[in-house]
Amino acid sequence: MLHDHSGATASEGTPALASPAPAPAPGKRMSASAVLWVTLAVFAQESVWNFYDAQVPEQLRHYVASAGVVGLIMGLDHSLGIFTQPSVGFLSDRLVRRRAGRWPIVLAGAVIAAVPFVLIPWAGSLPVLMVCVVGFALVANAFKGVTETLISDYVPAGSRSRAQGFIKAGVSLTIIVSSLISLLVVDRSLHLAFAIPPALMLIMLGLSWVFLGRRHEQTVLPEQPVDGQEDVPEFTSPWAVLKDAVRSPSSPTVLLMIGIFCFSGMWTALRSLNTPYGTEVLGLTRGEAGGLALPGAVAFLVCVLPLAYGSDRLGQLRAMRYGVGLFIIGLLVGFAVPTVPGTVVSTVLSAIGYASFAVNALVALWDLAPTQKVLGTYTALYTIASSAGMALGPAILGITVDLTSWRFMMLNAAAFAAVTFAVFTLLARRAPDRSPA
Fold first, then answer.
1. 239: Cα separation from own chain's centroid
2. b vs e for 166-188, b when ≥16 Cβ sit within 10 Å of the residue's Cβ?
3. How far apart are CA 358 and CA 251, in angstroms?
4. CA dihedral in degrees (24, 35, 326, 294; nearest 10)?
5. Which of 202, 152, 201 is closest to 43 using CA atoms?
6. N or C, which end of the chain has less CB nearby within 10 Å?
């Protein structure tokens, strides 16, 4: 049912704590219902973010002509997570064993973030538009990582990569939803289009809380030590956790964060500038260009679960490295064939490459945490790395477009992605995979 107390033993040979029934070994079972409701919660927030990335750049272009400036603005909102996520993630770690767990942070954040998002198309000037954009991004970034950490509360460590596969499959559906809103609603009513995603977010988060969050005390995994982590000291602040994580410049944690920074930056840059690329190079309307992400979303949805299960055998780091390689191939196809069919093929290949990264990156970072009590803060590490990439990636790619042209956007992105491939190659050599035998 909803209850899943798997993952209760420190190792396969250690007996579980006293309970009505023996707990299964870690990684052998996961609660399907918990995965379903956490997936719905992540789907809820990502439905807003995907539409935001697809349409806000075009909204900014009413007031800003430079692609570099548009990219900079789209990146700046993501940088807010760098400052808010460590404290909010650490607070959520303190709340996880209480009656409501992390849920109050998620629900309150969603309600507040919905207001400035709905007001974006009503903004009549650049300053008002910036207030709405920054207001939404400030709040939405604050609770985004907390929602992603929910899976660690209900799913044992050995099953989290597979659980992430289901979650990312749900996320791919948000890209489909965003694309359909762009295709069917944007050209008819921009105000209605911007009202639909936050409405979906509030409804779906509410359902997730009703069926999972309200029974948090009964469904959360029991708190038990992990082998080799019994003597880890209690962390008194988020900054102590961050200092411990990056204590060595050559540590796998630092390298993984650099890889996350690079890949997230280029992926976000492409998402942010894809609609203008479609209008400038392919001659599409704004709504049609916003729908270019749809084939990639379908490919992501089809491949993400096989990739999640395959990563257990291949190894998380190796799977991410191969994903970056496929991502680069997709970009080169898009540059070589600057047509709608060529761009569709490019989007599909790049999306499959990104899927391999998406299902493994956060779980790989959780595996490096010194104790399970700081997973929310380690999610903040992921957010710091990814948000920094999201902040700089669109601006960097946009500047290269200004220097060359929209026609060379795919080639420029492929050059930056090659740097990402080098980082993951180095990481795969220095840090052993923790995949099952």
1. 22
2. bbbbbbbbbbbbbbebbbebbee
3. 21
4. 160
5. 201
6. C
Question: What does the DSSP assignment read for 388-411?
Answer: HHHHHHHHHHHHHHHHS-GGGHHH
Q: Which DSSP letter does residue 373 get? A: G
Task: Name the residue among 72, 212, 78, 71 with its Cα closest to residue 142.
Answer: 78
Q: Are residues 101 and 375 in contact, defined by beta-carbon separation less than 8 angstroms?
A: no
- pLDDT tens per residue, range 77-111: 666 767 777 778 778 777 777 777 788 888 999 99
Q: What one-character-per-residue DSSP string does 120-155 give?
A: GGG--SHHHHHHHHHHHHHHHHHHHHHHHHHHHHHS
As given in the structure block, the two tokens for residue 379 are: 């999610």
What count of other Cβ atoms lies within 10 Å of the Cβ of residue 162?
Answer: 20
Helices 67-95 and 238-245, interaxial angle, to 10°? Answer: 110
> Are the beta carbons of 110 and 208 closer than 8 angstroms?
no
Q: What is the DSSP letter of 157?
A: G
Distance CA 209, CA 202 (A): 11
User: Rounded distance, CA 384 to CA 84, Å?
Assistant: 9
C-alpha 396/C-alpha 423 separation (Å) is 18
Q: Phi and psi at residue 3, in whole multiples of 5°? A: -80, 135
What are the counts of helices (DSSP H) followed by strands (DSSP E) for the chain?
A: 16, 0
Distance (Å, rounded) from C-alpha 244 to C-alpha 224? Answer: 21
Q: Are 48 and 117 in contact (CB under 8 A)?
A: yes
Which tens digit of pLDDT belongs to each residue from 294-307?
A: 888 788 878 888 88
Q: What is the reported pTM?
A: 0.69
Compute the distance between CA of residue 35 and CA of residue 342 in angstroms, rounded to an integer.
Answer: 36
**Rounded average pLDDT over 42-65:** 83
Return the sign of the alpha-carbon dihedral for residues 410, 416, 420, 426: positive
Which distant-in-sequence residues (6+ apart) come within 8 Å of 336 by Cβ? Answer: 342
What single string gives the DSSP state of each residue in 86-106? HHHHHHHHHHTTSSSTTHHHH
Q: Residue 37 is encoded by which pair of tokens?
A: 């409701």
How far, in Å, CA of 67 to CA of 195, rounded?
A: 26
**Angle at the Cα of 303 (from 300 to 308), degrees rounded to 5?**
110
As a whole number, mean pLDDT of residues 24-31 equals: 50
Quickly tell me which residue has 């993984």 as its tokens: 256
> From the centroid of its chain, how far is CA 404?
30
Token digits of residue 131? 């207030």
